[in-house]
Design goal:
alpha+beta; eight-stranded mixed β-sheet; four-stranded antiparallel β-sheet; globular; binds (3R)-3-hydroxy-3-methyl-5-(phosphonooxy)pentanoic acid
């Protein structure tokens, strides 16, 4: 569909990059409003993205979702709830046909919900004739998926947990343009299926049964402050140490849940060691891992070839995806 079609009345089309967190979001303060228990800091990617078209269908009685060419009736309730927020703002009740496509594996811990809901909100707005201020856009996206609030923006992004009862101070905002510190990313894909335990239920299980959950939440503000300072100073070494620590702390809380949440496989762990060996040898790289078995390596420009070579050699790595930092959600 062309840009002019995207501007057609009742139709919106948008693209949003996936993002992953260097300081993680894990746990909710308010499940109904999807307010996170902790703030987070992420990077938005340019090469892994979702493209979504929202088309208003006046005669339809319910929303409809096609993801990667397949009808997903089981996911309609989630996107309807997000579209309802936009419909309310527009004073419109019309249902929509939503077509969405990821150019990377879906639901495997590669932030498809982040790019998916960010693209949905941007496209939904356009279809409904809205143009929300970015902060409001981020608040709507958050209610679809916490990490989606961050994919509204490009480069380095900080999500504020907020404390207001209505969730209106729980939004993301840009921290640093990607062009100001053009880090690169190599993702080692170690499994391709959809993950067994999604982040939503993983968070609930951690919060209700992990003895380390409270400590995780308590320790987040100093991690956010340290990461913010390192990013503003473009200081790689402290960011590397902090991001790995924060990632392992999130997984420690998840591993200690009952039943345990083990998102890693053997290759994930071997990749982790490979990245640590590289850094010990002077290569500016660090890892992070989300609620899935993929390992994400973040490196300084110029180090990417060495990182690719090392991760390609790890048994169990199925594929490497590379990316630079990208823009926020935009119409296309
Ligand atoms: O927003 P969700 O439901 O996709 O949860 C994201 C959780 C993590 O990816 C594990 C961490 C994060 O901050 O992105």
């Amino acid at each position: 569909m062309s840009t002019s079609e995207s501007n057609r009345r009742g139709v919106g089309r948008a693209r949003a990059g996936a993002n992953f967190a260097l300081v993680k979001y894990w746990g909710k303060a308010d499940a109904r409003l999807n307010v996170p228990a902790v703030g987070s800091i992420s990077i938005t990617l340019d090469r892994l993205f979702t493209e979504t078209t929202v088309e208003l269908v006046p005669e339809a009685r319910s929303d409809e979702l096609t993801l990667n060419g397949v009808r997903r009736d089981e996911d309609v309730a989630k996107i309807s709830a997000c579209l309802d927020l936009l419909r309310r703002k527009a004073g419109v009740d019309t249902r929509a046909r939503v077509g969405s496509r990821n150019n990377f594996p879906t639901g495997a811990g590669l932030a498809s919900s982040a790019s998916g809901f960010a693209a949905l909100v941007r496209a939904g707005e356009a279809a409904l004739g809205l143009e929300l201020p970015p902060r409001e856009r981020s608040i709507v996206a958050r209610q679809g998926s916490g990490s989606a609030a961050r994919s509204i923006f490009g480069g380095f992004v900080e999500m504020h947990a907020g404390s207001a009862a209505d969730g209106n101070d729980s939004f993301a905002e840009p921290l640093l343009e990607g062009a100001d510190w053009p880090l690169e990313v190599v993702i080692a894909v170690t499994a391709k299926g959809e993950k067994e335990i999604g982040s939503r239920s993983g968070m609930t299980r951690s919060a209700t049964s992990s003895p380390y959950y409270e400590a995780w939440v308590r320790e987040q503000p100093p991690d956010l402050a340290a990461a913010r300072a390192a990013i503003r100073a473009r200081d790689f070494a402290p960011l590397a140490e902090l991001a790995e620590h924060n990632c392992l702390k999130m997984h420690a809380a998840a591993l200690a849940a009952r039943p345990p949440l083990v998102y890693w496989n053997g290759a994930t762990v071997e990749c982790l060691h490979a990245v640590r060996r590289l850094r010990a040898g002077g290569v500016p790289v660090f890892f992070t891992i989300d609620a899935g078995p993929q390992l994400k390596a973040v490196c300084a420009p110029g180090a990417r070839a060495a990182v690719e070579l090392a991760l390609r050699g790890v048994p169990g790595v199925l594929e490497l995806l590379t990316s630079a930092l990208g823009p926020g959600a935009e119409l296309c």
